[in-house]
Specification:
Order of helices and strands: HEHEEHEHEHEHEHHEHH
CATH topology: TIM Barrel
Number of helices: 10
Oligomer: single chain
CATH class: Alpha Beta
Number of strands: 8
Length: 308
């Protein structure tokens, strides 16, 4: 494993995106139950952490406190919705704060850049996918365009018409991998005041099976030069579908090395702070501020939670 609560605190990681992955090849009811179980397992972990792990539900929850860390929950793939639009608000009320439209398989909303259904390169968003984006904006759910094919990416960027995230990706100009994004997509991120999280797997950062942390820094350099320092952050994908991280970053406890490397490259303290979190926080707050406040007035739906 790449991360746990003590190592997150050791690495100075104040917040992390916690992606929830459910099986796309089962019934919608089973997918819903899987999300429910993940959310409540996470909440039990928070309760048992003696205050060291907190569930981030709003931008204000991202305040830095020494000796603590936090996580905002996301769902990897709109297949967790099936074709039921109301689940966007349901999951939001359960404490989920971003939805990756596609993971490694096509779903009722869109198609992946790589994986099952990736041959449908010209297929953009479905009618349901467009409705999901509108509903995410209404409730304040961040939309994540990692994994989606280019046609869907560009259509989604136009429809969102505001900040979004590409949670764990990189520039295809640096490493020619289908799941990475090209310069046109990078420009769409900047035009929407969004942010790209740089993945820490060598296969994606440099295209090599093994490489060192400079590969990750190189991706940060390219995105910053191409669309500006305000649109790049750390994406990691640790403990995801990732076997080999860049050498030097074996786990989250090694993240201070990234800070050190960025400073060596000549990045200012202000720019490093943007990359390490302020850029993401700007996007999160913008999505939060654009939402229909009535959508979250009822609060989280945790009434049936138990310590179990």
């Amino acid at each position: 494993f790449h991360a746990d609560v003590p190592r997150l605190i050791e690495g100075g990681v104040d917040a992390v995106g916690w992606g929830l992955v459910v099986n796309p090849f089962t019934t919608v009811e089973r997918r819903i139950k899987s999300v429910w179980r993940y959310v409540h397992a996470f909440r039990r972990l928070c309760r048992r952490s003696n205050g060291k792990l907190r569930h981030i539900l709003s931008p204000d929850d991202l305040a830095v406190e020494n000796g603590r860390t936090g996580a905002f929950l996301g769902i990897d793939g709109a297949h967790a919705l099936g074709d039921r639009l109301e689940l966007v608000e349901t999951y939001y009320r359960w404490g989920v704060r971003y939805i990756t439209l596609v993971h490694f398989s096509s779903n009722a909303a869109a198609h992946p850049a790589q994986g099952w259904g990736s041959w449908r390169t010209g297929a953009g968003l479905t009618e349901f996918g467009r409705a999901v984006i509108a509903e995410c904006r209404r409730v304040g759910m961040m939309v994540d365009l990692a994994h989606i094919n280019k046609t869907g990416f560009m259509e989604a960027a136009r429809l969102i018409d505001g900040p979004f995230i590409v949670s764990h990706s990189g520039a295809s100009a640096v490493a020619r991998r289908r799941r990475l994004i090209d310069d046109e997509q990078l420009k769409a991120v900047a035009d929407n005041d969004g942010v790209v999280g740089i993945i820490s797997a060598t296969y994606w950062t440099s295209g090599k099976l093994f490489d060192d942390v400079n590969a990750m820094i190189g991706q940060i350099d390219y995105v910053a030069r191409t669309i500006g320092i305000d649109h790049v952050c750390l994406g990691s994908d640790m403990d995801g579908f990732l076997w080999v991280t860049v050498r030097g970053i074996q786990g989250v406890e090694d993240y201070p090395l990234i800070t050190e490397m960025l400073l060596r490259r000549g990045y200012s303290d202000e720019d490093v702070q943007k990359i390490l979190g302020l850029n993401f926080l700007r996007v999160y707050r913008a999505v939060w501020d654009r939402a229909d406040k009535r959508a979250r007035s009822s609060g989280p739906a945790f009434e049936t939670d138990s310590e179990g």
